[in-house]
Write the structure tokens for this entry.
Amino acid sequence: MTTNIVVVVPAFDEEACVGDVVKGVRAQGYDCIVVDDASGDRTAALAEEAGAVVIRLPINLGVGGALRAGFRYAIESGANTVVQVDGDGQHPIDQIGALLQRLDDGGFDMVVGSRFAPGGETAPHSRVRRTAIRLLSTTLRRRAGVNISDPTSGFRAIREPLLRAFANDFPHHYLGDTFEALLVAGRRGYKIGEIPVAMQARQGGQPSAGLLASVRAMLRALTVPFTGCSFDLPPRAPG
């Protein structure tokens, strides 16, 4: 059973939304850690005012680096389960409970909130981006035996022992924290599931990568199963 649960929010220049995200998390009854990735705005101050514990990084590490810092802090604070939530208001905070329930019911190490699973909802995507996501999903299934329809989703629940493995080694580059993490975890025997969720468009601020940069990163990610991953994990122990 999931017991000690913490929500980790990586945030870079998210002053427009992060306060509402933290308030939503706190209203659901969860402790919240915001990792401020060297923002140049009031992200840290507003997150703190809303009730989060704030980790202020001195330099920008990217989403993966921010998440690793959050995972480590959560474990050191006694958590055995973390829920990732973006700071831009896209993720449905009221469905955190459904992620955690699926984690328990299915005996999973990680559960992903999917926009593209039957019953999920998403803001409109370009045809190019949607095609790239489908290619990533197919690659995951064929190369790691992981059947996830939304491999770029950052709305996830992760628990021990996978949580500790990610805290020890986790990719920092774009799509490393999502697609590559799924690929490596699947190959090392961790059990990964998904649930459908309804996601919104970004509620404020600017994405860290534009459409063209995102698609290029997705296409580069497709070569990872053949050229080698940037990190590794210990195999999942039997049982």
